[in-house]
Amino acid sequence: MTTTIKPVRRTTTKTAARRTTTRKRPVAKSTSARTSAPRKPAAKKRSPQQRSTAARSTSQSRKPRVQRPTRPVTTTEGRTTARMMSLLVLGLSLFGLVMVLSATSVAGVYVEQSLLYHFSRQLMWAGVGAVVFLAMSHLDYRRLQPVATVSVVASVVLLVAVLIPGVGSTINGSSRWLTIGPMTIQPAEFAKLSLIVFCADLLTRRAKKMDRPDLTIRPILVVLGLFTVLLLLQPKLGTAIVLTAVALTMLFIAGARLDHLFGITLAGIVLAAFFAYSADYRRARIFAFLNPWEDPTGVGLQTIQSQVGIASGGLFGVGLGGARSKWGFLPHAHSDFIFAIVAEEIGLIGGIGLILAFVLFGYLGIRVAINAPDRFGMLLAAGLTSWILFQAFLNIGMAIGQLPITGEPLPFVSAGGSSLVTSLAAAGLLTSIGRRAKV
């Protein structure tokens, strides 16, 4: 039996090479491709001084930047409010010039031998006030914050200066004026503006601490008390009453506790009554307010003659320039009692129209405060508005015999340079805040 042996197939070197070439192998990158790829540059070693400088610049760049607008961002409502405020103040100021000319015509001829003596002085102060109004209306009101404390210090210095013999001017037994060359200023009027700016700044910086009366109410009471003492030494109780009412209003709007405000108000009423009865002339004015006919030729004269002039005007008045009260019957007819001249010459219609003008001023001021872009603007507008309204209320109430005589002028209308300039400054600041309304 024969066996068949199958021949073994040998694999040659060529066949093995052919098989290996058919397999898929990863293609290696060429040397040129590797060299063409961009290489990251090696970081250079920095010195410790360079690293600290870089860290400092990085930390400074992370701090939030405070943006201070160089131009006011006005809105349609803001422009409308500012325009209405400007026109109203212009109308009140021009009306005041006309009434000062009418009220001082007789006294100018017989005392100063010039019909236009008082009017020319009031016109000069109106020009100064117009410049101040334009400057304040275009000023960014937030620039007043850094100088709030400085303004209070300056007001204290001026209030002390009027009490120094030879420096202050004494008229009718009162030391309330400073004579600077041809001009006579009354520092008490500027104290009103400085107190309002100070209160607005303090209550803005400490907005989150309104529950701390030692940090909010006490500093304001200290400044208010200092002003009050200096004003009572002049004496000028009416301005102290206005300042107290304005400060309490600003504290209420700022969010002070009502129990604290109630206690301060009660203490203020007690102190006002004490000071009112502490001086003979103030006590006589209180009794004249209660019953002016008890002394009709003495302390009750102004109240009686003011009421007679208002009643003589009737509904439409006796005509511009035709008032008989200014013929020596009503003392200080051009300043403290100019409302009586208005009512006598223009009548009840004119008196009500003037009152409505101040009501419109209050509405515009409240509107400015509500739409103010920040807390400082809101408090500043509220303080300025309450100041003008309180003072107008005191003056008109005094003229019609419903309030004791305090000697506070009627804003924008009464004769008096310091009162007119500060009132126009307040209106200019309100215009500045109104132009930057947030809506």
Word description of this protein:
The protein has 439 residues and is mostly helical. The chain has a domain of 269 residues. It has a three-stranded antiparallel β-sheet. Strand 2 and strand 3 form a beta hairpin. The longest helix has 33 residues. The N terminus is likely disordered.
What is the arithmetic mean of pLDDT? 83
Q: Structural class of the secondary structure composition?
A: mainly alpha
Major sheet: order of its strands? 1-2-3
The biggest beta sheet reads: 3 strands, antiparallel
**Per the principal axes of the C-alpha atoms, what is the gross shape?**
globular
The percent of residues in helical segments reads 55-70%
Distance between the termini: 120 Å
Q: Estimate what percentage of residues fall within beta strands.
A: under 5%
Summarize the helix and strand pattern as letters.
HHHHHHHEEEHHHHHHHHH
What is the rounded Rg? 39 Å
Unreliable runs: 1-8, 10-17, 20-24, 26-37, 63-71
Please count the helical segments: 16
Q: What is the number of E strands?
A: 3
Layout: helices, strands, pairs:
Elements: H1 13-22, H2 31-36, H3 48-62, H4 76-103, H5 105-110, H6 117-138, H7 148-161, E1 168-171, E2 174-180, E3 183-185, H8 187-205, H9 217-232, H10 237-254, H11 258-278, H12 280-290, H13 301-313, H14 338-370, H15 375-399, H16 417-435
Antiparallel strand pairs: 1-2, 2-3
Characteristic terms for this protein:
disordered N terminus; 3 strands; 439 residues; three-stranded antiparallel β-sheet; mainly alpha; 63% helix; 16 helices
